[in-house]
Fold this sequence. Notes:
It is built from 10 helices and 25 strands. The chain is an alpha/beta fold. Strands 3-2-1-7-18 form a 5-stranded parallel beta sheet. A 5-stranded antiparallel beta sheet has the order 21-22-25-24-23. Helix 1 (11-22) runs parallel beside helix 8. The chain is globular.
Amino acid sequence: MTKVLIIGAGHAGGSAAAFLRQYGHEGPIVLAGEEPAAPYQRPPLSKAWLKGEAGLEDLLLRPESFYGEQNIELRTGVTATAIDREAKTVTFADGTVESYDALILATGSTARRLTIPGADRPDLLELRTLAHAEALKAALGPGRRLAIVGGGYVGLEAAASARALGADAVVIERTDRVLARVASKTLSDFFTAYHRKHGVEILTSAEVTGFEDDGVRLAGGRLVEADAVLVGVGALACDALARAAGLSCDNGVVVDESARTSDPAIYAIGDMTHRPIPVHDGRMHRLESVPNALEQARQAAAAIVGRAAPTPEVPWFWSDQYDLKLQIAGLPDGADRQVVRGDVEAASFAVFHLAGDRIVCVEAVNAPAEFMGGRLLIGKKAAVDPERLVDPAVPMKAVTA
Ligand code: FAD
């Protein structure tokens, strides 16, 4: 019977183990991860959990009893250190060795570190794991001031949660707008204004030159005073194991549409992969999202049990800040223009990215119908009539050309 070994017990790895059983895999499954907890969801770490609205049991992907019931051997607190592809074994830091017939790598991504003076201070915070989130939560409260380096989703969500806990927050962004790498200017401007309205200070085009006892030093000399500093400047694929084993890597482990690596016995899923996106003409991307982790977990599990490959999905993502629900579907590369539907001032709108007469990406703020409709049209590659698209009186199902 095929033994499946999964390295990394996060969202992708934990889901792959469950899908394998759901799809009828009867052989042994070993799910090994270096964190002490059973697989859990990270999105609430910057949102509901951080604000105290969700507990640990709400974070868990599945109850701890699930793994025993499903005959999945869950090994927590173990770090894989080497893959021997000839012998089909993985060695762990504690000296143990685990064999496999099929190996799934699901080691996720890790916070990018800055290389400026003070960047190695032990009191700097990051936010990838529950342990990081616990340290951040302990630093927040009324009268406390949090400086956040990096205006990405995690940084902005942390700022909103800090405000909900009564703390002051300042976001320091190197480029000229927050979310510059991942969203349209319309969205950046909207979120900047919304955060400012909620008392968050946002500094753009602000280069951090060092971390000091009292806060963050900027180019030009200004000291941004803070009681705690969170650094959220992006994440890097955890592909060191794969690279050392000689698997093809390029900004993550390169996989195909079945999540297979350059070694047919090894799959890779989740944040650590550089993968083709079929609905975007097979272009390669490294995505960091829960839907991506789930889709690739299904792909790998289906390939291992010999089941038909799941239907390719339109990539999507969400972010919650204050009373805003942002939902994004598709990818903006290749777009030649953007149009807005709805009312930005009223915090209910969608930005559509068009390539010719096709929608390739939708960014929807408190606009679930636009998100759902846009996602469907991206998947169908349907031609739309831009004039109808921007008219909120025309239902999304009637915007095609
Ligand atoms: P992870 O969930 O990170 O799991 C990887 C696991 O592998 C980790 O437990 C790690 O310790 C372990 N590991 C690494 N190396 C080894 C090794 N050598 N041996 C053993 N174990 C190892 N996505 C959304 O779609 N929406 C959101 O709103 C959203 N919010 C987020 C908020 C935060 C604060 C964070 C951190 C992420 C958020 N994400 C969100 C992203 C989402 O959580 C990730 O895309 C998802 O967790 C990826 O799953 P993964 O299994 O690839 O990686």
